Amino acid sequence: MKKYALYPGCVMPTEQYAYELSIREVFPILDIDIIDVDGFSCCGEPLKSMNKLMTLYLSARNIALAAKQRLDLFVPCPMCHLSLNECQLVLKNDEEMCNRINSMLVSENLQYNGSINVVHTVDILHDHIGVEKIKEHVKILLSGLKVATHYGCHLIRPSEIGRPVDSENPQKMETIIRALGAEPIDYPERLDCCGAMLSSNLPESALTKTGQKLQKVQDHGFDVFVDVCPWCHRMFDARQAKAGETVAAKLDVPVVYLTQLLGVAFGVKKEKLGFNLNLSPIEKLNIGDK
Amino acid sequence: MSIIDLTSMAEGQTIVRNEINERLIRLQNQISDYCFQCAKCTSGCEAHKLLELEPHKIVALLKRGLIDEMVNSDIIWTCMSCFKCWERCPQKVSPVEILFALKNIAVASGKQIPGKYTTMLQSVLSIGLIQDIQSVTTKDNVTKKRDDLGLPKVSKPIDSVKFQMAITKLAVEKI
After folding, report:
1. Among A117, A129, A163, B88, which has the minimal tally of Cβ within 10 Å of its Cβ?
2. Contact indicator for A78, A228 with CB cutoff of 8 Å
3. Using only C-alpha atoms, what is the Rg of chain A?
4. CB spacing of A13 vs B132 below 8 angstroms
5. How many CB pairs under 8 A join A and B?
């Protein structure tokens, strides 16, 4: 049984409960032990536009906390994942900055001393657990389900900061979904942004980005839209109706987390996976228990 | 101390400004060497399609030193940090990093910060997270919070005073 410290970030533990619920249901089935660590803070990425040094400090602080536990860090949010990895890269190459950050960390009795492994949902599932093991646990094959995948910008770019998937043709989610018997299909808008980062200052534009992408997904005739980012999911799922208004369309696309889909295939009850919290029309999906 | 003091850092915060300026000069030097205005960044820019942000022009303006003009413009706040410009630039120039630096300058020089950024910073200062636990509504209109769903306590800074002190120091003096 491999252990990971869970770094929940901000959006998942305060709002996107379905992601957290499904993670806590699915990973133990795959022999992954999730350890809760107290004391984490925001990774700093949402504040990067205001003060990049603060982003660096907050990320280093969280890494230092996890390093104390001597555990690899499981980060379900692509934004946090990018921020923590960028911090490790910057501090590795900039000794002066590393010393400055450490002089500030002292006040909380923390010290940043080098990198730890920071992994996202997709690379734990694909690289650490592996598709073969996932296949062993599949109880309900999701045959014929046409799936549109969405990775989230921060998970695929910039590849200079070691992203877990390819930047122009990511395939890890597709491989995992195929293992469940479903059929992931490529579409031209697959790598498009959800616009969530504009929510704080240009909310209308953010919703338009979401609406434009979902409208295409709907036109292509997909059965379900699968994502792995709490920020993107908030846009595509909770704000789907509003996003539809911005593009003058009635959007009707079921949106679920990859971990929710895995749970259904593993035969976990949908309520335990937080399906009652999805606000998109998931009742259209004829999978799992009623 | 109010939140505005923390973010504007007013006069006397020369160290802060120097820091960001150095970052910008570094970017400027790289760019004058490498960017040849192929506009591949703009062709893929997510904000371009909707809000007319043109990353290659941002680079061109920086090359010409028109920093104040950009800092005073709303256009720098239309970037949705999708990182396509950074990823696809054949010359490894990173317009998105320039935009971050310009926004940091705008904040450091006390310009009006658009939208909810200040609220997010305020929340991080007080509880360590960009927002506190939210109530969500289920499909059948039942309101739920974390505890109702059997989820454990949220992980946040244990000694919030010490945490605040470090962050405040960073926002005010930037060490």
Report:
1. A117
2. yes
3. 19
4. no
5. 190
**Nearest chain B CA: its distance from A278 CA (Å):** 7
pLDDT in tens, B96-139: 999 999 999 898 888 889 999 999 999 999 999 999 999 999 98
Give contacts of B108 with chain A, Cβ < 8 Å: 51
Residue carrying the six token digits 């002190």: B165
Rounded to a whole number of angstroms, the distance from the CA of B86 to the nearest CA of chain A is 6
Q: What is the CATH number of domain B11-108?
A: 1.10.1060
* Distance of residue B146 Cα from the nearest chain A Cα, in angstroms: 7
Q: pLDDT tens-digit profile of A178-205?
A: 999 999 999 999 999 999 999 999 999 9
A53 and A103, same domain (yes or no): yes
* A126 in a structural domain: no
Q: Is the same domain home to A280 and A138?
A: yes
Are both A22 and A104 inside the same structural domain? yes
- A73 and A160 fall within a common domain: no
The CATH number that applies at residue A269 is 3.40.50.11810
A111: Cβ contacts below 8 Å, ≥ 6 apart: A64, A102, A105
Supply the pLDDT for residue B21. Answer: 81
CB A147 within 8 A of CB A117: no
Q: What is the pTM of this model?
A: 0.94
Q: What is the pLDDT of residue A47?
A: 94
- Is A153 part of the contact surface with chain B (CB cutoff 8 Å)? yes
Q: Which of B117, B144, B166 minimises the CB distance to A108? A: B166
The encoded tokens of residue A92 equal: 């590795």
3-state secondary structure of A5: strand
How many domains are there within chain A? 2
A52 found inside a domain = yes
Chain A residues with CB under 8 Å of B158 CB are: 38-39
- Is B7's pLDDT higher than 80? no
pLDDT at A114: 84
Average pLDDT over residues B69-96: 95
Domain positions in chain B? 11-108, 117-172
A157 → closest Cβ in B83, B103, B130: B83
Tell me which chain A residues have a C-beta less than 8 angstroms from the C-beta of B121: 47, 50
Question: CB contact, 8 Å: A48 with chain B?
Answer: yes
Q: Are A229 and A78 in contact (CB under 8 A)?
A: yes
For residues A143 and A183, what is the distance between their CA atoms, to the nearest angstrom?
A: 7
